Amino acid sequence: MTIRTTMSAVDWALLIFLSILWGGSYFFGKTALAEIGPLTLTFARFVPAALTLYLACRIMGHRMPTDARAWGAFLVMSLLNNSLPYALIAWSQTHIESGLASILNASTPIFGAVLAHFLTTDERLTANRLIGVLLGFVGVALLIGPGALKGLGVDGLAELAALTAAFLYGCAGVYGRRFRGQPALVTTTGTIFMGAVLALVPALYVEHPWTLHPGPSTWAAVGALTFLSTALGYVIFYRVMASSGGTNILLVTLLVPVSALILGMLFLGEEPSPLSFGGMALIFLGLAAIDGRLPRALGLMRERSY
Known about the structure:
Blueprint: H1 9-32, H2 38-59, H3 68-92, H4 98-105, H5 108-119, H6 127-144, H7 153-175, H8 184-207, H9 216-244, H10 246-249, H11 252-267, H12 274-291, H13 293-298
Helix pairs in contact: 1-4, 1-9, 1-11, 2-3, 2-8, 2-9, 3-7, 3-8, 4-7, 4-11, 4-12, 5-6, 5-7, 6-12
């Protein structure tokens, strides 16, 4: 398939739909966490998603690898890109609003740009990326607020957990380079499956899920999180990436917090503070600078590596 540098109307529609699905994951997670713990939610999200993705692999004719080295790589990738971030975000949402968690998580490309600069040889920080990183971190500092200097507290720790998840996603972006040449659906299926394995024991020993009695709304939220936000979301993600490229798909990062904020305000009664919108604006500006297309179009920046 030929990869375009511009996006078609269909790709834009899919990208917006994907942002709703992934923005909705914060809403679905917040709803489910009212009755089940974050570790149990992580496990419940992974198992059916892994089975669905495996079925998709079989339908598309992909074969899962059988060597231990490949599954060891899936294990590391799952820790960085699935198990730990999902659990951290789920726990953070038990103390902070889903909209704030989504905005903090939008700093993922900022961490990714810094990590890629130090850990790779072909993704160095350019002038626009450096400015983008600085803007992004100022936005994060604005979100955390000056109160953090007096001691984190539970809410501060929850914000730190969401940021740690974003950092891990950035690490996954660098580590995931080793999966180039392998069908993306195979990589996703392997990492989600390992995520289910990793979440099983902590969920059993820490939260005792057999003692929980979730209601219909919780089951509906878990189902939506599993099949819509995870399984269908990744299918759309790889569809857009295959036709429009990896740079264009990152635009979803700008849209997810907007969806999460709107859903949180409409259905969860959340009221984001002005600092949330200010921090989000700075992070968005940082992501736009890292992406580089808008500054180049305006003739504001030149690509110079450091």
